[in-house]
Amino acid sequence: MNKDNWSIQDSKDLYGIERWGAGYFGISDTGDALVQAPTSKGTKKVSLGKIVSGLQDRGLEMPVMLRLENLVDDRITQLNQSFQNAIDLLGYKNSYRGVFPIKVNQQSHVVDEIARYGERFSHGLEAGSKAELLIALATLRNKDSFIVCNGYKDAEFIDLGIQALRLGFKCFFVIETPSELAIILERSAYWGIEPLIGLRLKLSTQVEGHWSGDSGDRSLFGLNSTQMVELLDQLQQAGKLNCLQLLHFHLGSQIPNIRNIRDGVKEACRFYIELIKEGANLQYFDLGGGLAIDYDGTNSSAGHSRNYSIEEYCTDIVEAVQDSLDAHDIPHPCLISESGRATVAPMSVLLFNILEVSSFDPKPASKPDENRCDPIKYLWETLEKTNSKHLLEFYNDAFYYRDQVRELFKHGQINLRERAEGENLHLSILKKVASLVGELKHTSPELDKLNDDLADIYYGNFSVFQSLPDAWAIQQVFPVMPIHRLNEQPSRSATIADLTCDCDGKLDKFVGPFGETNTLALHPLKNNEEYYLGAFLVGAYQETLGDLHNLFGDTNVASVRVDEDGELHFVHELAGDSIADVLSYVEYQPRDLAQQFRQSAEQAVREGQITVTERQQMLGLFNESLQGYTYFER
Fold this sequence. Notes:
Strand content: 15-25%
Shape: globular
CATH class of the domain at 94-339: Alpha Beta
Oligomer: single chain
Distance between the termini: 36 Å
């Protein structure tokens, strides 16, 4: 397309923002990425560029983890209203309660906002550890909100949960392994409290996508049929079968295919029916997580997508439970879901600036001198002859002669300048070949990936391992795009490298207009002007899983809210880790390091290497750096 004809819609199509953005993000007429924030008076639009300016005015430099409070509030509303709409539509005879799994994003401001806003829906919390249970106990205010305790539980864990029961919360102990029942019965007897017990099923239903290992016979957690029968007998013998009130299953964190969800619910209902027949006092049906995010915008059953809406998810679940239980005249249970990813993923955007670009553009080539070696001359001849008729042959010749040049250099038969000349000619041929590939009706694998091989490397001011660990660990694809200049046609293809000096510290899988791509279309950098990118839908797990690779710590964090009049409010600001902070995480004492460096500097003074004034300058720089940001600062 002609550069002058580039439109905002072209950028929307290229980056897929209307496909994966779920209505929360858009592009202004001036080419800025927008947050389209739901409010009580409709959607209000705010430029991400305006937010970046506000952050910088407040001393928060890039990179920044931006949290958009309106979005998590809207996700809670959508989930609860969609279940209620399905219940009303189908005539289901009970209610829905959501619980947020704290492990998905444990940051205090996130959990506090979920508890605050979710109070109107009696939205609760799921705790998989003692630490998370303490958060739930201290954070929830609405006694109609549920607390679901998953994970391995020792006596202290049970004791804490019993305190929630004493305070009036419905706190369920979900048994993951048979050994937990004895602890639950012993501690509840000690406190004189009847426990609320749940069983976690291990279903045979197998799901698609990356988290398929969470389902099926080899899933790590849950009880098989034999174990469930044994627990039923133990509860019966203890006279506590009435305490078994909840049935729970979990098919995976991101389930892309709605058929898997419906199949899992139907199988779980069979267990529910049989447990009722055994005398269990079941009243609650916990569907676990799995409600997926459409990261790549394909609306498909691919692993990074989903082929259903929230409304379809809720309706299919309610209908499947109702149909299964009505056939046996069993009362409808209260439905519980643990939708974490779908609740918080959209709310967070990692904002970062680009520091530098490494390109593979050749320098202008000229005919070699007569005294140059034959392989260099042959490279020039190949460049001159390259055309679309024998493109793969010219491609292969370029590598063949390039390798001969390298061999000659290795054996000292040509000098550095001659090798550089040969390398530049080789690159010139590849660029010419790449420009002609589009003229072919049929290509080869080598030619198909040539443009990717020649893509620029844009160096981003962030750490993949700290802020986007799933992109490295499980090849999760997050939408990435510029947040400005979107009224300009991007003319460069690029991958993105981070600051960690690690071969895995990169982004090379992106959301493209027709599915996943290996490069991202970006704009050339302008002198003395920052270029900002955003990685979207990163609110689930990324802040929790981040590590300290190369000792890059937590980024700056900001939470913003857009009010009903469209005004932007900076609700929460948190400076990222200092160098002293991250050193202390790996058991260095910053004060001791400063003292050790002082001693080294003093020794240098005694030996006449530096002056006392220079010593003071060094100590000042060392101590100032200890308090500095771990990321690149202009």
